[in-house]
Design goal:
Layout lengths: L7 E5 L9 E5 L11 H35 L11 E5 L3 E4 L4 E4 L2 H11 L5 H6 L1 H7 L10 E5 L7
Parallel strand pairs: 3-6
Antiparallel strand pairs: 1-2, 3-4, 4-5
Length: 157
């Protein structure tokens, strides 16, 4: 059993002025079973085009949701190891793993003051490529864990 054909409405002006227009129902004869009109064929093509478009949009939405979920997935580290260790000695300081003894120059003092304030200067970190490589994989939410040992006092030696 097929659905009844859609009703078409025609508006006409009422006899009295300043009145609303009344719709008039116009009956449409149903098409013979098995025969499709040109309009039906056109609507079928539009439906197929819309289905393809909807599928493409759905695929894009699924892909974007997948990417969004990957970005939002929390990075959980079982152990939060230090990116590097700084050992402060009487006349110089050492960054373990690099084999460098750095004097307390103005630039290095600024580096240590920033570490003490809880900030790591990016430009100075990049200035020492070995240290930058050592920090890779230790970032957690944009932060690095740095251990500082102060052995400047005689009782620490």
């Amino acid at each position: 059993m097929s659905a009844p054909p859609p009703l078409k409405f025609k508006l006409h002006k009422a006899d009295r002025p300043r009145k609303r227009l009344r719709p008039e129902v116009v009956e449409v004869a149903p098409a013979a079973p098995g025969s499709a009109s040109a309009q039906d064929a056109e609507w079928d093509e539009q439906d197929q085009g819309n289905e393809k478009l909807n599928k493409v949009v759905q695929d894009i939405e699924e892909h974007l949701l997948k990417l969004f979920r990957q970005e939002r997935a929390p990075v959980i580290r079982q152990e939060r190891t230090a990116a590097f260790r700084v050992v402060l000695l009487r006349d110089y300081f050492v960054i373990e793993g690099l084999g460098l003894a750095l004097p307390y120059s103005a630039d290095n003092q600024r580096f240590l003051q920033r570490l003490e304030a809880g900030r790591l200067p990016w430009d100075q970190l990049r200035a020492i490529p070995e240290l930058s490589k050592q920090c890779e994989g230790h970032y957690v939410n944009g932060a690095l864990r740095v251990v500082v040992e102060d052995r400047r006092m005689p009782e620490h030696a």
